[in-house]
Amino acid sequence: MKSMKSASCLFERTTWLACCLLFLVACKRTTETLETMSLSDLLPASKGKFITYRVDSLVFDNNTPVTKRYQFKHSFDSLATDNLNRPMWIVNTFINDSLASGPWIQRGQYTITLLDKQAEVNENNLRVIKVKLPVKENFTWPGNIFLPDRPYNSYGTNFSIDLWDFIYTSVSSSEKIGPFNLTDVTTIIQADESRGVPVVDRTKYASQERSIEKYAKGIGLVYREHYVWENQPNERSSGTPPVTTFDPRYVGFGIRMWMVARN
Prior knowledge:
With about 260 residues, the chain is mainly β. The protein is about 15% helix and about 55% strand. The protein has one domain. A 12-stranded antiparallel sheet has the order 6-5-4-3-2-1-14-11-10-9-8-7. A two-stranded antiparallel sheet has the order 12-13.
């Protein structure tokens, strides 16, 4: 009888300890969820806020890679609603020369929609989920899921960027970007694939899909790379016996930008 009583007490103590452990694990998980950054931390929005970027733009002039340099200013203009009746910020963009020595000329605009779990940017009718909760390393999401199949066909490329998986590769790191020493920088890699780069033989296919963005807490986007280009050999055979000739061409574009001023 005593043995059965001891066994019963041991069972009750074991059950109590197990419940305590489960409670502690649950509390830890709750704490980790509460510690994640908010969307407004990475994409703070307010009327009159602006960020100025130095921009290196890769274009192909007469089938030759050329880098053109500018400054772009992104300025938050007003709060409106999108076609789904959701609140969105309208951001105007202005262009200047690389030293900002001339007048600022309005170039276009895009919108930012901040939802409960994600932030969407719509530019040139291309809607992208730029940031998504939770903000933690190795968290992934299909950021280009709203894009049409091969949206850059007009540039002559065949990339399916709608299939890209975005991933947080670092959170709250310290980095020097442009003239700024920044803390709390979060890096998102959207794509990073290259083939035959650097190009040493134009008769060989080469391509680059590289897209990276960095956001600083309380500031917003501070760095971006977006390269989508191909070297297409365009191999042709003609004659008897056949002779192979090549008519290579570059297609696509690229951009690299980093923050140089803000308010």
